[in-house]
Amino acid sequence: NIGESQPIIRQLDDAAINRIAAGEVVERPASAVKELVENALDAGARRIEVAIANGGKTLIRVTDDGCGIAGTDLPLALSRHATSKIDGSDLLDIHTFGFRGEALPSLGAVGRLNITSRVAGQDAASISVEGGKMSPVKPAALSGGTIVELRDLFYATPARLKFMRSDRAESQAIGDVIKRLAMAEPFVGFTLRDVSNGGEGRVSFRADAETGDLFDALHGRLARIIGTEFAENALRIDTSREGLHLTGYAALPTYSRGSSVAQYLFVNGRPVKDKLLVGALRAAYFDFLSRDRHPAAALFIECDPHLVDVNVHPAKSEVRFRDPGMARGLIVSGLRHALAEAGHRASSTVAG
Ligand code: ADP
Ligand code: MG
């Protein structure tokens, strides 16, 4: 009966568009935390405090001491495709976590969102959005930085709410997100607090800002997050190849794991879950580990942003290298070299 009732094409309204986009950007509370903490880092924060309740389902509050948002800009911050981070002329020249201008409008479409912020030298202001409807900007009290509060995530999308896991599982996923970002930014202090049940709030993770040079700071942070045993058994990696730079720490084969949980990979400061890089890590240890053991490592690839596309998925956890073989080769040869050298050192010590 096509032709009988001809379908009508309509333009969706902003609220519907934002709810659709939110489905990709905000999968669960941990993805909301990731977006908000990344915003704080992009704002140059040195201290970031995250408070959650009920696994982030009823409350996520991120407080930072970054540059703040001007009161007049608050409605723009909540508008789709509005960003202070790129001008759109070069989508491969990206130096910030964010650039799509989607997180805040998406969060405002699926939860109750309030932003209070203050730019140095200006008055503090706040704005709220609920069900996609923005409030007027109001005067507020805040000494500096930004507080973003997200309540009742997915209250407007019950189907999504059903997919949430237990408070415990969601809290753990949030902890994971914060730990990865804390590894990427060792000079920033992070706190995660659970304020469920009206209590004072149990601190479930704290990492004070590290000091010293970057390697020392990273080493300290990895000891804090992965464990001192990892840090004591980790080889320092620092190698380059054709414009790609690999740094970080990789554990000796003797400190291997029965699962791949202690594998942390970063590309240009961004935590990624990338099959290519995980495969390269495995391949590097191939001669040193039995098949049921997994290497532990925190590795950072730095390169010209033009050599890697981070705009593969809205959550930006996958990347696409212009030359995947080169990225793989860098990891495999860099780690093999370090492992072989460590082996030599160990055997020459034994030999006296
Ligand atoms: P994006 O991060 O991709 O730019 P968002 O929707 O996450 O998009 O944020 C929109 C804008 O709001 C940002 O570009 C930034 O200017 C501002 N903003 C968001 N969070 C903060 C924050 N914590 N501190 C300062 N500015 C912020
Ligand atoms: Mg953002």
Automatic annotation (TrEMBL):
Keywords: DNA damage, DNA repair. One of its GO terms (biological process) is mismatch repair. One of its GO terms (molecular function) is ATP hydrolysis activity. Residues 222-340 form the DNA mismatch repair protein S5 domain. Belongs to the DNA mismatch repair MutL/HexB family. This protein is involved in the repair of mismatches in DNA. It is required for dam-dependent methyl-directed DNA mismatch repair. May act as a 'molecular matchmaker', a protein that promotes the formation of a stable complex between two or more DNA-binding proteins in an ATP-dependent manner without itself being part of a final effector complex. This is DNA mismatch repair protein MutL. The lineage of its organism: Bacteria, Pseudomonadati, Pseudomonadota, Alphaproteobacteria, Rhodobacterales.
